[in-house]
Amino acid sequence: LMVAFLAMTSLLLASRAQASLARAPRVRTRSSLSSFVRRAFMAPGKTANTRALSARAMDKEGHDVGLQRFRTLMKEREMDAYVVPTADPHQSEYPPNCHARREYLTKFTGSAGSAVVTEDEALLWTDGRYFLQAADELGEDWGLQKQGVQGTPTISEWLSDKLKPGSNVAIDPYLHTALEVEQIEKKLAEKNINLQLVHDNLVDALWDTRPPFPTTPIRIHPPEWAGKTSTEKLAELRADMDKENADVMVLSKLDDVAWALNLRGGDIESNPVFLSYLLVLKDKVMLFVDKSKVTPTVQQHLDEIKAEVEDYDNVVGAVEDLAKAGMKIMYDPASTSVALAHAAKASPEVVRTTSPIDLKKALKNKQELDGMREAHLRDAAALCKFWAWMDLATKRGEVINEYDAGGELKNFRSEQPGFIEPSFPSIVGEGPNGAVIHYRAAKATARDIKAGSLILIDSGGQYDCGTTDVTRVYHFGGDKHQPTQEQKDVYTRVLKGHIAVDTAVFPEGTPGFVLDVFARRHLWEAGLNYLHGTGHGVGAALNVHEGPHSISPRFTNTVPLKPGMICSNEPGYYEDGVYGMRIENLLIVTEKETPNTFNDVKYLGFERLTHVPIQRKLLNLDLMTDDEIKWMNDYHNEIWEKISPRVSDEQAALDWLFDNTQPIKREPLRVIGNKEAVAAAE
After folding, report:
1. Which of the two ends of the chain, N or C, has the fewest CB atoms closer than 10 A to its terminal CB?
2. Neighbours of 186 (CB within 10 A)
3. Residue whose C-alpha is closest to residue 71's, from 142, 119, 4, 124
4. Buried (b) or exposed (e) across 404-433, using 16+ Cβ within 10 A?
5. How confident is the model at residue 679, as a pLDDT?
6. What is the C-alpha separation between 194 and 395, in angstroms, rounded?
7. What is the DSSP secondary structure assignment for residue 551, as one 8-state letter?
């Protein structure tokens, strides 16, 4: 049957002429399925979710054995409460496997959350992205605290309310920032509750299967995409130190170190960073890292910038030595661990200030922006081929599960030049799984994707030149299978919010929270909303989530949007247990020409980076304005012009791209009546 099928396909392909790449005229024949036939029978790739934790052990009564053992250790150490955050010593959003302590203890796999264990309670705090996922993954011995929901206390408020005076709350000083600890201490002191800094982490005492520390070699980030040499960047940081009259700047965030040194690594899945600390002095820098990761090429690079390589574990002692030598230490209390902050106390003077690197990373230079543009063009080509393959497979009646689809998506990206890895574990959610905002498909429980399926895929790639992040929702099965009217209405409202942000023009100095209402307005009009931010910053060949700016309801973030910043635009809606909708593009903040410049203020807007079609089948054109329809058609025309040359090697992908970038237009009104009425209507 296989041979016959391939033979028939070959005859079919030979009989069809290749279509022109020209946008007009829009008449051509269907053609090649050859490369897509190959894909239909190749082994599925492995998804980005490679972390494997042991299953939850239960006793005869159905209680969590690991939690019971943990409480025994707490009792032996006279601890009344213990806090286990997601964070590693560098405050990474996604810690390496060896630091996934909260995940090990709770079995909750989301990227955000903190656990608190007392003698009789075990709770997890997490945000709205993970409410459904946490409820599904936490065992019966664990309770969920819905962070951000009215009435939910903070961890320090809960501890202060539940514990008796004189109780002991224990934390690992390497996993909590100096600012965070100060806030917790202040709240607990109101009830005479003690905060203990315990250097030997209690989870580690139980974790007999703890993964080893990563040893991936460090690599140099290509200078053509970095835009500035590490020498130039270090000079900028030393100028910032001079403003504060500081002798040493402490850098502990991994993307800060990678950015400053123009180095990249592979210690954390999907994040091109390496476990390290950096101390910047006036005449040298000190890099604390596993020396086995430093290749001869990287060592030569470090020698050129006068960088001394020290053992990773020696950073606290080094900071303390420099402080005792009378040097003025500068660090950011919001990102530096309390362990390092305490080491700096021996200094005659400490400078606590916001890290200057956050803004420097956010304001991309020309080469970084060019690299991001190129990365998104490569990524769009991969995605168009992937969506075309999925579309053809489901129309043929094939069934592909979420897990295998995620593996195939990685395969398509890996065919693009400069691809390194996904920029985060791909979210592939069919039907109700699309409503789990940061869903991860597991092979054993993955849902099937077939004709009639509605699927949400949020994914991205790390390339040598840049980082991508894109979300699309598609309904499969062609015209024979249609989404519900509710789904079309909700999707259209999400798109209207997306367009409103994309086309926004605003004065310089505007913080991102001002734009958040643009994305939500049309959902609010229908009594709908979503429990996540609208936009986050994105690194240039760095972490997919980057600050300091954002677009969200959090009005406390007053960082203004500035030209050169990159931000996502991703409104959505999630009907629990039914479906999820989200449309995400990445945008560059740019200056805009306006007819006037009131008060000599410049006005800003956005340039789109993402070039992947938005499915027309899911639209309710009756809800869209003429300007919104024009936006859609202009966007799709731009996609065709930029991406069609990059998929011309696979005709089926070119066909799919052509079909999915056709203009949309309203159906003409049908007028019933006399000729005069018809004429008037026309």
Report:
1. N
2. 11
3. 119
4. bbbbbbbbbbeebebbbbbbbbbbbbbbbb
5. 52
6. 63
7. E
Q: How far is CA 334 from the centre of its chain?
A: 21
According to DSSP H, which parts of 396-512 are helical? 402-414, 485-502
Token pair of 582 as six digits:
């989200």
CA distance 115 to 81: 10
Under 8 Å between Cβ of 118 and 162: yes
Nearest to 609 by CA among 453, 491, 488, 460: 460
Helix (H) or strand (E) holding 85: strand 81-85
Residue 270: C-alpha distances to residues 103, 267, 416 (Å): 18, 9, 17
**Which residues, including other chains, have CB under 8 Å from residue 13's CB and lie 6 or more apart?**
31, 32, 33, 34
68 C-beta neighbours (distance < 10 Å), count: 12
Sheet holding 585-592, edge to edge: 506-507, 603-608, 585-592, 566-569, 535-537, 546-551
The answer for residues whose C-beta is within 8 angstroms of residue 288's C-beta and 6 or more apart is 276, 277, 278, 279, 310, 311, 312, 313, 314, 315, 318
Q: What is the pLDDT of residues 280-331, one digit of tens each?
A: 999 999 999 999 999 999 999 999 999 999 999 999 999 999 999 999 999 9
* Cα–Cα separations (whole angstroms), residue 635 to 25, 572, 608, 660: 19, 19, 9, 11
Q: How many CB atoms lie within 10 A of CB 529?
A: 13
Question: pLDDT at position 640, please?
Answer: 98
**Strands of 454-459's sheet, edge to edge?**
427-430, 454-459, 470-475
Terminal CA-CA length for the chain: 56
Output the six-digit token pair for 44: 């599925």
Contact (Cβ atoms closer than 8 angstroms) between residue 322 and residue 279: yes
What residues form DSSP beta bridges with 10?
none
Distant-in-sequence, close-in-space partners of 523: CB < 8 Å, separation ≥ 6: 493, 494, 497, 529, 530, 571, 573
- Residue 513 backbone phi and psi in degrees, to 5: -65, -20
381 sits in the region (left: phi over 0; alpha: psi -120 to 50; else beta) called: alpha
Q: From CA 299, how far away is CA 261, in angstroms rounded?
A: 12
Q: Can you tell me the distance from the alpha carbon of 448 to that of 400, in angstroms, rounded to the nearest whole number?
A: 6
The mean pLDDT value for 491-505 works out to 98
Nearest to 576, CA basis, from 368, 464, 432, 429: 432
Phi, psi (deg, nearest 5) at residue 548: -90, -5
What does the block give as tokens for 628? 């919104």
- CA pair distance 661, 650, nearest whole angstrom: 17
pTM, to two decimals? 0.88
DSSP character at residue 346: G
pLDDT in tens, 93-118: 999 999 999 999 999 998 899 999 99
Q: What is the full DSSP assignment across 597-614?
A: -GGG--EEEEEE----PP
Determine the Cα–Cα distance for residues 82 and 170; give it in Å rounded to an integer.
5
In eight-state DSSP terms, residue 208 is T
| Cβ atoms < 10 Å from Cβ of 13 | 17
Q: Are 493 and 575 in contact (CB under 8 A)?
A: no
Evaluate if residue 3 carries a pLDDT over 60.
no
Residue 472 near residue 455 (C-beta atoms within 8 A): no
DSSP letter at 64 equals B
Contacts of 534 (CB under 8 A, 6+ apart): 497, 501, 515, 516, 519, 520, 551, 552, 568, 569, 570, 571
CA 424 remoteness from chain centre: 6
C-alpha–C-alpha distance, residues 363 and 561, integer Å: 10
Please name every residue paired with 268 in a beta bridge, in sequence order, or none if there are none: 271
